[in-house]
Every structure is written in C-alpha cells, then in structure tokens.
Amino acid sequence: KRLIALLPGSRKNEILKHMPVLAETVRKLTALQANLHFVLPVAKTLDPDLVRSYFQPDDPITFLPGKAPE
After folding, report:
1. How far is CA 44 from CA 10, 35, 52, 54, 67, in A?
2. Nearest 5°: CA angle at 40, between 45 and 65?
3. How far apart are the first and last CA of the chain?
4. What pLDDT, on a 0 to 100 scale, did the predictor assign at position 49?
5. DSSP-assigned letter for residue 27
6. Where are the strands (E) in 1-70, listed by range?
7. What region, left, alpha or beta, does residue 4 occupy, with left being phi > 0 and alpha being psi -120 to 50 degrees?
8. CA–CA separation, 24 vs 65, rounded Å?
9. What is the pLDDT of residues 3-51, one digit of tens each?
10. What is the C-alpha radius of gyration for the chain, rounded to an integer number of angstroms?
11. DSSP 8-state secondary structure symbol assigned to residue 6
12. How many CB atoms lie within 10 A of CB 48?
C-alpha cells in the first residue's frame, strides 16, 4: 500500500477548517486508487475523538495520538 500523511494542524480552529476537506480527499482518492492508506498524527493539544469524528469507520486511516509536535 501507498502511505499518505495528513497534517491538519495542531489547533482546534485548524482542525475545524481542514478536516472536512481532508476527510473528503481521503474518500475521493480511495475511490480512485484502492491501495492507499493514510496516517494522521494528532497533536497532544487536540481531542483525538474530534479528529476521528470526521472519518468513517471503513476509511483507510490510522490515527497517531500524541505523535505530532504542537
């Protein structure tokens, strides 16, 4: 699989702005190419559940809580 990192930011306002676009991008790219997997580091300053809430359970993504610098 090809691995793609998503880097939405470390502040809540960045998440609110960027995550809808990133989640839609994941779905569109996955529909075009099935061999993709995404990783998203989640800064300690963010609620991981908020970040996860933008994605469907079957989206090919791994969240890495606490693995992003603030």
Report:
1. 8, 29, 14, 18, 8
2. 45
3. 29
4. 95
5. H
6. 2-5, 36-43, 61-68
7. beta
8. 21
9. 999 999 999 999 999 999 999 999 999 999 999 999 999 999 999 999 9
10. 12
11. -
12. 15
Total Cβ atoms within 10 A of residue 1: 10
Distance (Å, whole) CA 70 – CA 68: 6
Assigned token pair, 62: 């791994």
Residue 12's closest CA among 63, 60, 62, 51?
51
Q: Which two tokens stand for residue 28?
A: 């569109």
Extract the tokens encoding 61. 């993504």
What the block records as the tokens of 35 is: 């061999």
